[in-house]
Design brief:
Helix Hairpins; alpha+beta; 9-stranded antiparallel sheet; single chain; 4 helices; about 15% strand; 2 domains; two-stranded antiparallel sheet
Length: about 350
């Protein structure tokens, strides 16, 4: 019985270890499946973006056509307004001249009415001589000619006035039609622009969501230490240190052990900044789209400012509060609290 108890006690730890060993691949498999699904969604989103891009190009052509039409309509409106102004001025002048001519014609008609229809004949019969009669005949002929010229001027002026008024009405109508078409084209253009902005905003937002989802499963594109490295699974352990060395604290990252001088690289595109401090020694942070990483205890700093994946931002060292060369590596998603980067580092290192 005692032997059996020993066997059972021996088997229990092995059973627990076996369960852990089977659970780890299962968890990794679940993450891999989620990553594949997220990547597939990203591919589908990119395909939709290409489809929408075709629609956006079509909208672009429509908007260019509408812009051209708007420009032409605006030009037509301006031309019509200029022509209307000229016609308005001409009509005012013709109406003023018409008043003058009609006034003169009315005066002549009033004189003829006062004198009476027999006045010209009486005027001839009272001539004192043949020469006087001839002169009087010439005078009457000249008066008749002037009356006829005045009447012709009134008629011609009236015709010009009618033509200008007719053209004014036509140009005003053309201007109104151009304005109507201009308003229609402008409204259509606003609708197309709104549709374009809506499509782009929706697709961009959806793509950002997919990229963020991928970043949850694989935030790092490359291993932060570019060389042989051993990674400690030490996130969250209680570290005992003297006050001089920072005091007791919870370890917020993983220690990546590597030879001094091994390059440390940006694990994603972003901006590298100097984060040197007393405890971490020479340090660099890299801020990316979905958070930042913190690298401490470097021997020296590399490239700062805008960086791309794989750019050397520093080198492994032992500065600050440490006894051996390594890269203390932290991961802060969305610039928030640190999370354990160990499973993500195992994927890329």
């Amino acid at each position: 019985m005692a032997a059996a108890g020993v066997v059972r006690r021996t088997l229990v730890p092995f059973a627990c270890i076996a369960m852990l060993l089977t659970a780890v691949p299962a968890a990794a498999q679940t993450d891999d499946q989620a990553l594949r699904e997220a990547r597939q969604e990203l591919r589908d989103t990119n395909a939709k973006i290409r489809e929408r891009a075709a629609r956006l190009r079509e909208l672009g052509r429509e908007m260019n056509r509408l812009a051209t039409e708007i420009s032409r309509n605006e030009h037509q409106v301006l031309e019509a307004e200029s022509r209307i102004e000229i016609l308005q001025h001409a009509i005012e002048k013709l109406e003023a001249r018409m008043k003058t001519l009609e006034g003169r014609l009315s005066d002549r008609n009033r004189e003829a009415l006062i004198v009476g229809p027999g006045a010209p004949i009486l005027y001839l019969l009272t001539a004192t001589s043949i020469a006087d009669a001839a002169n009087r005949m010439s005078f009457l002929t000249e008066m008749n000619r002037r009356d006829a010229v005045l009447a012709d001027k009134v008629e011609a002026n009236d015709e010009r006035l009618d033509r200008n008024k007719a053209e004014y009405a036509r140009v005003a109508r053309a201007r109104e039609l151009a304005l109507q078409q201009l308003r229609i084209s402008q409204q259509q253009l606003r609708v197309r622009l709104l549709e374009s902005r809506r499509i782009m905003a929706f697709l961009q937002e959806h793509k950002e969501e997919v990229l963020f989802e991928i970043s949850r499963y694989r935030p790092f594109a490359v291993c932060p230490v570019d060389g042989p490295v051993a990674i400690s699974d030490s996130f969250g352990i209680w570290v005992h240190r003297s006050e001089k060395r920072g005091g007791d604290h919870v370890h917020q990252g993983n220690d990546m052990m590597a030879a001094s001088g091994t390059p440390i690289v940006a694990p994603f595109d972003g901006t590298a900044v100097n984060a040197t401090n007393r405890i971490g020694g020479i340090s660099v942070k890299v801020f990316g789209e979905y958070g930042y990483v913190y690298n401490a205890h470097l021997s020296r700093i590399g490239q700062l400012g805008p960086v791309e994946t794989g750019d050397v931002i520093g080198y492994v060292g032992a500065t600050g509060n440490t006894d051996a060369p390594h890269d203390h590596f932290e991961w802060h998603p969305n610039d928030g609290p640190a999370v354990d980067p160990y499973p993500f580092l195992l994927r890329v290192c």
